[in-house]
Amino acid sequence: MSIDTGPEAQTADRRPTTPATVSSSARNHAQTGSWWKRALLVAGVLGVLAAAAPALIRTVTPKTGTRVLTYTIARGDLVVSVTEDGTLESSTNTEIKCKVKGGSTVLWVVATGTEVKPDDVLVRLDTSTIEDNISQQKIVYETSLANKITSDSDVAVAKISITEYLDGTFRSEMATKEKELVIAESNLKSAKNARDHAQRMFRKGYISKLQLETSKDAVKHAELDVKVKQTDLEVLDKFTKAKTLQEKESLLDVTEARLASDTATLELEKVRLTRKEQQLENCVIRADVAGMVIYPSAAEWKEQPDIEEGASVREDQVLLIIPDLKQMQVKIGIHESKVDRVKPGMEARIELQDHSIDGEVLSIASITKPTGWWNGNVVKYETIIKLHEQQSLKPGMSVAVEVFLARHKDVLTIPVAAVVEQGQEFLCWVETDDGIVKRSLKLGDSNDQFMVVEEGLQQGERVVLNPIDFVDEAQTDALKPIHDSQPEKSDARGPADKSPHEKRASGDEGGAKKSPPSGDAIIKIADKNGDGVLTKDEFDEKMKPHFESTDTDGNGEVDASEIEAGLKRMQPAAAEKK
Fold it and tell me: Are 71 and 465 spatial neighbours (Cβ–Cβ below 8 Å)?
């Protein structure tokens, strides 16, 4: 007996068992590679593995009178799309940044969504550290000012000292030296007169020879004194003047250099003081334009926004945003398996809470967004959607964006749930008057419900839905390892051409050799409560006596590793029985 579900009833009566397609949303994390092929394999593998594990679990056995769900192949339109969640944002924003050098701490911040006017206070930052820095800087500035005043005075004194020496001290010393020379010359003249008089008196016998010699010595002393005075005058004019002038000019240069240094230091300290006072003003952040204030989006791995009371902020960090509500757009992330199909200009539909808006793809990022534990390590590319309507939109609204990748007109389609993948071949089972018949298919594009049939089916034919659950042949085909479905390249002979020894070595004797299912696959099939392990009640009745030997840790539950170990222990015993 069969129940036919036509195109109009397929979605309501039976949903596909596995998402297969390009239109899966970001919440389902689309698979990479040959996505539609792997989707088909996933749709069948859970039910298929039941037949491969008869030793531990119940197999699905068709019963007489079982109702088989079928679908009538028909022509129609198929839309292929990708759907992702996104957020409304403005393409043009006025950013409110922290201008405090070295950062600060938020004392108060305006609530997000607040409508503000120009010059309204938006954020207040901690000022205690800056106020202390200003007090210290004022002391440094005043010290620099005092040094500069002292240097000004030293320069003025040095200039006056040069003038004083040239016009006063030097002239006075020259006059003194000249006076002393005149006196020395006068004394020399007097000494000579006294000597001449002593010579006349000695010749007349009035004085002794000793007295004459004394008068002569006085002349010599007077002559030496004149020479000394002449030398002193010459040294003062030629050497002492030049040396003293050089010293005073050097002192002037030093004081002028010190004045320049103190002046520059004073200006620098004044700039620093002004900057710190400006930093104090920057602790109160005001609005430059009118609009709605919103907090910037926090990183995906953070639970709290970056801007809140008590939060530390750095210089040039964006604290708030005032978006232009007339230029809204949507930012979404396109999974890496779909991004190659998305192109700028593609149509998009943006679903809001109460209505939808048409749009188009504006740009796709060339590099991926950062991945990590916060997004399940899913690789996505940032995509901007341009909106064709800008009314009644607010930043931060959650939206669902559907980007239309392809539209197929008047094509044959088959439900994803009706197809089984075996190796490189896609199969379905068609209900005919003579029974259910296997059919090989050539498939095209797909969405999460239907696939385009290029070859293998005709309009009006009925295909079995979920054939693995109802058709033994489908179960058998799905269980075949991929290498069993491909011809052997190393040996072209069939089993009949091989010796018994070759048959045993190659596995041809007694039928095809199949790999046992994995422990995880067995658990997925037999795990009734979905806890990831099997209890004794979930074991097959025939295998319950072996539960204790399989449960090696004795905790009353069997996990995948214990099942695989049990299968390995059972393989030698099964081979001996053969």
Answer: yes
Q: How far is residue 316's CA from residue 98's CA, in Å, rounded to a whole number?
A: 5
- What pLDDT tens digit does each residue of the chain (578 aa) get? 566 665 554 433 333 333 333 333 333 333 333 333 443 433 343 333 333 333 323 333 333 456 778 899 999 999 999 999 998 888 888 999 999 998 999 999 999 889 999 999 999 999 999 999 999 999 999 999 999 999 999 999 999 999 999 999 999 999 999 999 999 999 999 999 999 999 999 998 888 989 989 999 999 999 999 999 999 999 999 999 999 999 999 999 999 999 999 999 999 999 999 999 999 999 999 999 998 898 887 555 455 566 888 989 999 999 999 988 888 899 999 999 889 999 999 999 999 888 899 999 999 999 987 777 666 778 899 999 999 887 778 888 889 999 999 999 999 999 999 999 888 889 999 999 888 999 999 999 998 889 999 999 999 999 999 898 888 888 887 777 654 555 444 443 444 444 433 443 344 443 334 445 577 767 766 777 767 888 888 776 666 777 888 888 888 888 888 888 877 776 555 445 44
Distance CA 195, CA 211 (A): 9
CA torsion sign, 458 to 464 to 468 to 474?
A: negative
SS3 per-residue string spanning 325-371: CCCEEEEEEEECCCHHHCCCCCEEEEECCCCEEEEEEEEECCCCCCC
Domains of the chain: 2-74+413-485 (2.40.420.20), 88-125+292-402 (2.40.30.170), 129-282 (1.10.287.950), 516-577 (1.10.238.10)
Place of tokens 């040094």: 147
Instruction: Report the C-alpha gap between 559 and 551 in whole angstroms.
Output: 8
pTM over cut 0.90? no
Q: Give the angle subtended at the CA of 438 by the CAs of 432 and 442, to the nearest 5°.
A: 110
What phi, psi does 336 have (nearest 5°)? -60, -25
Instruction: Write b or e for each residue in 98-130: b if 16 or more Cβ atoms lie within 10 A of its Cβ, otherwise e.
Output: bbbeeebbbeebbebeeebeeeeebbbbbbeeb
Integer Cα distance of 562 and 481 in angstroms: 23
Residue 453 makes CB contacts below 8 A (sequence gap 6+) with 73, 411, 412, 413, 414, 441, 442, 443, 444
Residue 477 to residues 16, 230, 428, Cα–Cα distance (Å):
20, 135, 11
CB-based contacts of 2, cutoff 8 Å, min separation 6: 67, 68, 69, 70, 431, 462, 464
